[in-house]
Design brief:
single chain; Translation Initiation Factor IF3; alpha+beta
Amino acid sequence: MNPADKKTLKAKAHTLKPVVMIGQSGLTVPVLAEIELALNCHELIKVKIRQERDERKPIIEQIGAETEAELVQTIGQMAVFYRPNPDK
């Protein structure tokens, strides 16, 4: 993804509300399934990660690896992911 694409996606994500929230249980199989479903439906999603700062980065990396989604941006507890839907 080139910088211009990322800039466009960041602008689109600005108005989005978090679709998935990761709580104290962390990244579980049902949460990953919900992220997959959200990416299939919306392509661009916001995920709120309610963990300590040092625990967020591994979770974000795992989401990207498991879902094959690209990380667009992180701000505080929010992470924005993008994965194009091949069916659209």
